[in-house]
Amino acid sequence: MKYVLLPHMTSFTIQDVSRRSGLSEPTLRYYEDVGLVGPIERDEKSGHRRYRPEDLDILEALSCLRAVGVGIEDMRTYLANRARGRAAAAEQRDLLLRHAERVEAEIAAQHARLGYLRVKAAMWDARDRGDAAAEAAAVQRLVDAVGRLEVLR
């Protein structure tokens, strides 16, 4: 997500940032509290947060990391590496690949769950139709599907 900055827009309210980033206002406050972003400037009169375009850039990265399940500490590492630039490129790559492997494992687990559900439904479908041969075949496939689920436990 790229933010469209109009010439008159030099800062944004927390509501603006929440709408643009998809991060809730409590999440934005939390990210400031734990030091992932900020400190965020405050309006002198109202005391309300006023985010700068640079803050939006950081929040865009955090929003993406959050969307793929990266935790706070790894977000912190990511931002520190990002600030270091090319010198931290290998560390950044390794951090992202570690999360990619986690996502791949989650996908494999979901495939195993999906396979079980489909085979179980096929068994009940065969039973409903009174097709003993198809039911027996589904039960055989179900044994394999259960084995794949047991690995997940």
Automatic annotation (TrEMBL):
**Coiled-coil intervals, chain numbering:** none
Cross-referenced Pfam families: MerR_1 (PF13411)
Q: What keywords appear on the UniProt entry? A: DNA-binding
Q: PROSITE patterns, from UniProt?
A: HTH_MERR_2
List the InterPro entries hit by this protein, alphabetically. Answer: DNA-bd_dom_put_sf (IPR009061), MerR-type_HTH_dom (IPR000551), MerR_fam (IPR047057)
Q: Does the keyword section mention DNA-binding? A: yes
Domain (HTH merR-type): residue spans on this chain: 11-81
Q: What is this protein called?
A: HTH merR-type domain-containing protein
Q: What is the lineage of its organism?
A: Bacteria, Bacillati, Actinomycetota, Actinomycetes, Streptosporangiales
